[in-house]
Records
---
Amino acid sequence: MTRGDGRLSHDLMPGENSPQDACGVFGVWAPGEDVAKLTYFGLYALQHRGQESAGIATSDGESILIYKDMGLVSQVFDESSLSSLRGHLAIGHNRYSTTGGSTWENAQPTLGGSEERTVALAHNGNLINTAELRDLVDEQHAGRKIGGEIGRGNTSDTALVTALLSDQPERSLEDVALEVLPKLRGAFCFVFMNEQTLYAARDPQGVRPLALGRLERGWVVASETAALQTIGASVVREIEPGELIAIDENGLRSHKFAEAKPKGCVFEYVYLARPDAVIRGRVVHEARVEMGRQLAREHPVEADLVIGVPESGVPAATGYAQEAGIPFGQGFVKNAYVGRTFIQPSQTLRQLGIRLKLNPLEHAIRGRRIVVIDDSIVRGNTQRAQIRMLREAGATEIHVRISSPPVKWPCFYGIDFATRAELVANGLDTEAIRASIGADSLGYISEDGMIASTDQPASELCSACFTGDYPIALPEDGRIGKHLLETLPIELRTGHDASIEHTPADRGEVDGRRDADGVNVGVAGGGSGALLHP
């Protein structure tokens, strides 16, 4: 679906923006294997982590080729494009934008370097010292115009890291990475490469997951263990927080660039990761089922049927039903092919109640008291629509249970929630939210209950979106946000001398170019710039 503001969405209700997934990264070093297709299938397994753009970079030991575009993995690549990506090492990326808008220029992997060395990089997470890193890049160029992807209009934190890694070509990339990585603050799982070597790195807090796998003839890294298993790799271990690994013809090398201070994202267990992923020894599906059991203990109710909102609410619904002794059933039918549509329903169609994503299963609902399990409430629009549909289908009572606490704070570590002002739990208490969405009762799992379900120590999890307690301190000067680099003055953004007169194209006035959120990104578009695409 397309939101009224132009932003792509496949939510049930226009205008409702559920927590958007973190990105997915994949890397493989495997001489003799078709690494482009391995990466394609790895990204396919990680498609849930980002649906805005996809890209793959490969190297044959001499040069790096990159193919990337806006859209899903299956839309971006075909047999022809994959066959052109030859080599023995590759990295890939699925993007959901968290710094830098959803534009072609910001698609990954990013590319940087010189004749001496080329660097391609893919990033899952979000850095919180982007402005500081921009200043470092400006210092490197000492007033000279910045080229590469930044010069072409890339406004992501990933492009800044690529530029920093590409500097000092007389030194090894490994040495430069060990110097750059400690300067980064925030959440990052990187896979990057030069012509000969695959690298992977994870931030000291290990906010986002990253796993290492083994092929018969090589090594693989991926955001989730499920992607390793999809391509037939065995899971070896997780990349440790604060670890950099390098893989080449000499084998695998590991470096610790920072002390590990684990703060894994608890929302990976609630919603983000695939149910078959394993994070820190805990199968995500088992964690979600246990969250449902805990919900039933904390918020019991007399009812005839427990249903889950597909897909992420279903495991918790089975747990709730088991613990409560209430039958579990299917209450919604999901359109498995809804994906992302670029066709926006007209207002008339919306008033007719067009339902692209879910329909109630009326024969299972009519005349019954229903418990509906969902993973979170953001604005409340989706739950309001679901409850209306269930009442129209004949439900006599509707009791909503949520397998996470109220979301009250935005995430700056790689999840794009609504703004704090838009989060319904900020302005209303539980009873007011219940009345707003039209439920007969509403219950959220407690923070302690959610954390206990993960089998992880509370001290090693980040739950800032529920508590406002950010484990990685946010910049005091307030220079943070998705569109930070796009809204800075152009001379600061590009390193130009402020005294130089800028053309309308420099100021982004040629075609009013805006990203999918409607933010002017200051980049001239159109066919005249096609050859500038890397």
---
Amino acid sequence: MTALRMAFNELRRITSGTLPKLAVVALALVPLLYAALYLYANKDPYQNLDQVPAALVVEDKGATASDGTAKHAGEDVATELISGKRFDWQRVDAAKAEEGVRNGTYTFALTLPEDFSQALLSSGDFTPRQGVIMLTTNDANNYLGSTIANQVVAEVRRSVSVKVGAEAADKLLLGFSTIRQKTVEAADGATKLATGQQEALTGSQQLVDGATPLADGAAQLADGLRQLRDRTKDLPVKSQQLADGAKQVSDGNETVARTAEDYAAKAQTLAGRLDQFNGDVANHLRAAGFTEEQVQRVMRALTDARAPVDDANAKVQGTAGQLRALATGAKQVSDGAAQLAASTPALTDAIIQLTDGATQVATGNAQLRDGATTLRDGEQQLVDGANQLRDGLNAGVAQIPNPDDPTRESTANTIGDPVNVHGVSQTSAGSYGAGLAPFFLGLATWIGAFVLFLLLKPLSRRGLAAGQNALRVALGGWLPGVLLGAAQVVIMFSVVALVVDIRPTHPLGTLGFLLLTSAAFVAVLHALNAMFGAVGKFIGLVLLILQLVSAGGTFPWQTIPVPLYPLHYGLPMGYAVDGLRHLMYGGPLGSVGKDALILLAYLVGSLALATFAAYKQRVWTPSRLKPELVL
């Protein structure tokens, strides 16, 4: 009897009659009911969150910002939540929300307290405090509902933080613009200051330039006046002596002039008498009968004779006039000398005072020159400082940002929300149900294989009784399970792909891998049942439980406790889940071959164990004829 013959006989046995046929159909549908129905119910639960009732309590009274604008952050958050429609938000008061969460009317409640807006604005007044969002949950309603609520609150917190941060950054950037404007004005003022200081420096230099020769000239004047004072200190005595001498000269000249005038008068009298004598002579001659010619000849002779007298008279008269003029001049000189002698003491006193004043002026001019030099140096420092201030402010202006409105808004948004997550998904399941599909398909395949041996007999008794080859008997008991498992897989895969609409990236590869998985799982459970009988069924159930916790179907398998790591590596379901993930999501297929080889090794090893069990069971024992436990 061949293995196929024994398999056909076993299938005919379990399908003889209407009820057995229905039982076989039921066995074929078990993986479908487990995997497809579960995946259908949990395909995308997040899509229906808008049906989850949640209470929203807005007690925020709003606040007024420093610029006078009103802020109602609580209303803004409420509007955003309600318009987002992620939950069935219902605005109620605090008491109703608390009661609703307690009795299950609401899955959770979100409360925005009355000082919510004030808290968000508190940083602007340098009295910072955080705005509080109160979340009320009740795990008796639903644990995952509370978990999702915490995620929602975290999202609300992030959204509010982004808005507040963006507003604060916008004010900061606007402040930069104001600072830049004021700095520009300050730079302009510094430029004017530098220009004015430069002009003042020029004036100071001119003052130094003018004060230096002035100080030098004043010093020379003081020296000259001191020399003049020294030289004129004896001038009053000398001028008095001069006045006395001039007086004596004047008096002498007066005497001489008067004497000369006296002699001149006498000479003039003589000249007059000679003129009278000449007239008398002419008359006597004419009376004596001399002719006029003779008279004139005599008169000419007389005139020639008196010529020396006339000349002497003229000289005497001239000399007398000159002596009078000399006496008059001497008198004037004497008077002037007297006046000079009288005014010389005042002159010398004035020269002394002028010398002292000139000395003070020279000292003042020297101080002026030194002060002007100090002023110039100070002005130079002011010019350098003003230039540095101007250059620093101009350089500072270039470093102060002055964004336009779009740039400021974009920058503020970036500061408020500086990090954006750009997800690069090498593969994507697409939905919650699709993400769980590899695990539940693999789990359903094991359960399907498990229930098959509630009807199927692992080894043919006829084959064993006839002394058939142990391998042939083992294959004969395994093949019916493989065929029924294949039917289970085809039905389950078709419904999941076409009805539940979870479409694998590699559909044929996924189906083939599921068939291999089913064949391997059937082989494992067939070997357990063949080797241990009813105990084998219990071992298969224990292995199901162990694989539920170690296969890594929901969380990454590395999150399980380290003592359970050997279960992940040693049991077949982890490899089935891994291979299905790569085939369904489109990941690298390199590990699929390794997973398939491991499942194939389980299949071959299980067939070897079943063959050994068939070999042992060729000998009938009392325990086989009447087992202690029958399942």
---
Amino acid sequence: MVRKLPKADVVVIGVGWAGGIIASELTKKGLNVVGLERGKERKTEDYFMVHDELRYALRYDLMQDLSKETITFRSKERIRALPMRQYGSFLIGDGLGGAGVHWNGQTFRFLPYDFEIRSKTIERYGKNKIPAGMTLHDWGITYDELEPYYDKFEKTCGISGEENPLGGKRSDKYPTPPMKKSPSIKMFEEATKNMKLHPYMMPSANLSQSYTNPDGIARAACQYCAYCERFGCEYGAKADPVVTVIPVAKKTGKFEIRTHSNVRRILHKGGKATGVLYTDTTTGEEIEQPADIVVLTSYVFNNIRLLLMSNIGKPYNPASGTGVIGKNYAYQVIKGNAIGYFNDKQFNTYAGAGALGMVIDDYNGDNFDHKDVNFIHGGMVSLSQTGLRPIQNNPVPQGTAAWGKEFKETSLKYANRYLSVGAQGSSMPFKHHYLDLDPTYKDAFGDPLIRITFDFEEQDKNLAVFLANKCAGILKEMGADHIDSLKELGPYDITTYQSTHNTGGVIMGADPGTSAVNNYLQMWDMDNLFVVGASAFSHNSGYNPTGTVGAFAYRAAEGILKYRDKGGQVV
């Protein structure tokens, strides 16, 4: 029998960056908020003196248990999807703080071009530049409209950085100065300046100095220990929801967090969300939490899955191109990189931080002329020093024997004599890339898994090789003696890690017929339901998505407060 609890003003599903920001902003305005997190409690003390590569980086201690819930994948509709039984291409976080605990901290703003990508592309190149099947879509908001929310998120996190010379205009500088430049970063800077490019230090949620944010949260500076990605920060120097926004919400006395609470349905009646149904995974009890406003702030896959299982919104149909839930799934093109080997130079690549690096955006967005290339958009190119942990890193030049004396000698020679310059390419949406419920496979509760249908297109293959050649050119200018770079991008491989930058499925826009949420991330079909996260992106940019997720979370919080006061669709 389902136990029904007293009604809350707001129930938040998933307490990561988006959920934490929503809770913080709403409780400060006097609303009572219940946060439901299916994972366990997390706090900074959990990571004291725990630099354990095996436990966190290789055995995925902070990630979702795939034996209980996973995704299924197929590259084309005619192929049967199969479950992802071990982690590969991306990592799905679990627990309080979500992926905001184990991220690297690279915090970018999308380019102004991203938000009006269809209009701007047609304006400059004509309609024929957009290939058949690419469902390119303006976002229903401009960079200038979103800029104040970017600024707010950066000040909450204490982002350390310097102005991007090719980025959108800023209303204020970063709250803390950029991080230190290592010798390899200085080499990248000199080389790219020699090539008449525009380098700048990567915007970092790893604090360059001690900082107190506008909410009064004080945090210490980064120690450059190199245990960021896949790890919690023992110093609290890496901004994450557990050390920034969640404490602010809890301090109001109006935020109740319930961990081990797996939301399985959003309840609704007469076109309104009435609450949620969740299972207490410690007892197996089913519980109903009524609420005036429901905010879905879990990871991309779960946002879509919950809407589909709850029969909210029209599911996307790739055959007809109709429907919106599951539409415009996009990923990231990470394969455009190059490795340079140096005979007479050595580097300490084991020190570092998750967002320590230098970037150029000369090949990102529409910052260069695409007239003579067979793709749109682009990607950032960077040299980052995130810390090469010893178990996972042992590259040798292509053509080296894979075992034996030659392999051992070459491994030792280049252990501290190589650098990687990498590109992070954008991902454009296509009609046949989408998410839906798998008809065969189910989770531990008997609910259907989410199914991905996706593969790299010619757009991605051309972009990856273009960016890899740019990376190789920079390494040549840096003086590398031997350079290996991508020559051809094959099919998408879900077994090899690339990035956890999944986007789309509940996309935003100005037209309810082609989008699921408005630019406050309010559902067109259910005005007291807000869906916040990278699921709102109608394509993925050549950057990490978290800065844009954070900005939209602050805008969504503003929209929720407007809805609370006036009701209806927020404008």
---
Amino acid sequence: MNSSNLPTVSVVVIAYNDAGLVGEAVSSALAQGPVVAEVIAVDDASSDSTGRVLDELAAAHPRLKVVHRADNSGGCGTPRNDGIAVATSPYVLFLDSDDVLPPGAAEALVRTAVLHGAPVTVGAAVRRELPQHHDVPWMPGLHTPGEVVERPADRPELVRDTLCVNKLYERDFLEKHQLRFPDGRFTYEDFVFTAGVLAAAPRIAVTGELVYVWHVRRDAARVSISLDRKDVGNWRSRIEAHRTASGILADASPELGRACQVKFLEYDLPMYLRELGKDPEYQRAWWTLTRAYLDTFDEADVASAAPHARWIVRVLRAAETPPADVERLTRLAADPPRLLPPYASGPDGGPVWSAELPVELDGLLALPTGDLPVTMDAEPAGRTAVRIRLHDLYGRLAAAAPQSAQLHFLPRAGGAPVLAKPVPLAPDPDGGWSAVLPFRPGDLAATGRAQGLRRLQTWNVAVGVRCADGSSLITSLRPRAGLLRRRALPSGRYGVLLTQPFRTGSGSLALRLAPGAAGAMYLVRNRLHRARAARESV
């Protein structure tokens, strides 16, 4: 079937006070070609020039229809519903005003939908961090290209993909099941809409093509709802959206309902917990709200979650207020999870959270070596080496006998990891293992350049450990005293190489490299820009 014979798509673009970006979004939809019969742009009563920008575009592009709302709805659901109401094509696709559709997205989705007779078709999406253009795949590994799911209950893990924008919907399917978004100011409205879609039990087809680019602008004056987590209200909204979605799914299928509950424990809860911060008032409010919601979960749902998620739930339930070691809990919520020392034992000798909160860490002793939430500290050992210390974990690592450690540098912008040479680990007199791991920043910067990384390079730092029993693990590093200092190193290749180790939001070590004078100036400007954005957000 050639492009001219394909069924057509209505692309619904929603916009509010986004005059500077909405044109790019609309243009990316119009550029999809004849498969997009119409682009319906809904202006949610913007107070800037968004409406005028859309009207000017519509005057030049007959396929663009503009809907002007008289009153602002306060959310994303109502304008999307308005777009569905006026759509005329057999298929509907959603697009936000600050994102874009990559070339060929609509055609790839329609071809897959027609091939498999699927009312819902899903494609790949990326979160693109701007201005770095660092792409992070959305839910990697969840969808298999070419897969056809006859019933969502056959693949309950699909509840983890809550996006509505990386999917094509048959308009008759939406109408038959009266599927609409929550109206008004309902944050995370796509949770509820997606739950309704899955509850309707459609056949779902998967294309491996990239169909959506989600732009993430963390330093924007008005951040997106999903990034606006500076007060507990955002968490309350996410809980309410999850509660509603979970009820819809549980009514349709016990398997989907449980999967939704487990997803909250393994994904939503750790994501917000690791961003808990140090504000005591926020911590207390968050803690109270979270404990109250977790009390509504069945123990069977908690038991179905991954071990570190179960432990987090049980510590939260056991402590009425945030404990003194709450930072340990935020690190357990990191990816990969890390259980920081000290390590306490219960009356029977089994692992517990702490002497003050003797919550059983059930299943820890049975975990494979690679799944253990180990902690590895890092401190400076000269200008181009780090000294690491690997902590034992209730004798599990001692039984595996760690032998060597190897630095892994993973480009945050995507690409192949860079591995240093393995170094033998030596037992410490007081337990654990240590080693000095050298690396050559100039060689790392050159590899980054060869991979297409220009000016500022950013690398996540991890360490792989091999053990005598044949097992292995990879973990992140916890930066310790004096490691997070910027250094300017002489370089025969670049003249100067600026290195800046830093701590990520989850407490792990990462590294910025700025080769040459131009790179160093870019790093300094980038740091000043982040500092200014942080001040303006207070």
